[in-house]
């Protein structure tokens, strides 16, 4: 399992791009994880699925609301990662009004979740293998803090805790 001090695993995530530009076309675009994190401080939070109750009512809104505070704490980008396709993540981002605040990154086949060792088997509930709920602060591709939730919990991966860790890192 991924831990503090580890480099993020190699691979790609996809993001649905609403407006063409910066070398990105409309629709799903793939991003190399190592290139996208190089030289940056990224706040990443992951969750089991788009449009699910806790994720939509608490997890994503907390990061959207705190986006400016994260920037002030030296965080370059906030990523929401879920085992969903880029179309679903794009629709969820529109629903949650994440534009310009949180990048909705799709891990469509769960390869990133598997590579981190942070998977959650929800097969019995008809959802397949998903990502655990967690948050992490990544600096230049290296994990500086990692907050993994117990199954069914939402206590340590919210925006407030990760923002506090970002501020401590900067101090």
TrEMBL record:
SUPFAM superfamilies: Thioredoxin-like. GO terms for biological process: cell redox homeostasis; cellular response to oxidative stress; hydrogen peroxide catabolic process. GO terms for cellular component: cytoplasm. It is an enzyme of class 1 (oxidoreductase). Its EC number is 1.11.1.27. The keyword Oxidoreductase applies. One of its GO terms (molecular function) is thioredoxin peroxidase activity. Keywords: Antioxidant, Oxidoreductase, Peroxidase, Redox-active center. It catalyses: a hydroperoxide + 2 glutathione = an alcohol + glutathione disulfide + H2O. The active site is at 55 (cysteine sulfenic acid (-soh) intermediate). Residues 2-171 form the Thioredoxin domain. Thiol-specific peroxidase that catalyzes the reduction of hydrogen peroxide and organic hydroperoxides to water and alcohols, respectively. Plays a role in cell protection against oxidative stress by detoxifying peroxides. Belongs to the peroxiredoxin family. Prx5 subfamily. PANTHER family: PEROXIREDOXIN, PEROXIREDOXIN-5, MITOCHONDRIAL. This is Glutathione-dependent peroxiredoxin. It comes from Caldimonas brevitalea.
């Amino acid at each position: 399992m991924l831990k503090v001090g580890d480099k993020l695993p190699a691979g790609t995530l996809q993001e649905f791009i609403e407006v063409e530009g910066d070398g990105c076309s409309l629709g799903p675009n793939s991003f190399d994880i190592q290139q996208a994190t190089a030289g940056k401080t990224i706040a990443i939070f992951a969750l089991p699925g788009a449009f699910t109750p806790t994720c939509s009512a608490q997890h994503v809104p907390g990061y959207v609301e705190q986006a400016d505070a994260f920037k002030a704490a030296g965080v370059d980008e906030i990523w929401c990662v879920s085992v969903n396709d880029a179309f679903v993540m794009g629709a969820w981002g529109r629903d949650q009004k994440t534009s310009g605040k949180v990048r909705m990154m799709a891990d469509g086949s769960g390869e990133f979740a598997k590579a981190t060792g942070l998977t959650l088997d929800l097969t019995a509930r008809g959802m397949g293998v998903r990502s655990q709920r967690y948050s992490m602060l990544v600096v230049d591709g290296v994990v500086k803090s990692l907050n993994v939730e117990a199954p069914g919990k939402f206590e340590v991966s919210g925006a407030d805790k990760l923002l506090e860790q970002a501020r401590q890192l900067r101090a």
